[in-house]
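Handout, section B. The chain below has 130 residues.
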Amino acid sequence: MPEAKILVIEDNPFMRQLLVSRLKANDYGVITATNGQDGLIKAQKENPDLILLDINMPNMDGFETATKLKNSVETKSIPIIFVTARGEDKDIFKAITELSSESYIIKPFRPEVLLDGIKKALSKRKIRRG
């Protein structure tokens, strides 16, 4: 049985597959979405333990997606880790303070950084669930 179920919302096929492979290799269950709208639907339907979310996506960017997730009763408690190429301070500030994300990982990243962020976010969620 997987350690946790993680929803990956990423429009880039290469990056999405890279994340999926890394997560499955570490015994996580994985659900994928190729855009924010699909991600919202899957988050409500699947109730993942954690969401990995890109910012630069067409139609609905990651910030808008995160806002909708946080404003929904069904998904507001799901922790979010942004995994993005955007490394500007204003983006990091918005993600952490305004959207209460658990972490902000800038691409390219070392796999250990991603896995460490995931473990920390999931352990916090278990404590909150109690």
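Note. The first strand starts at residue 5 and ends at 9. Compare this with the example in section A.
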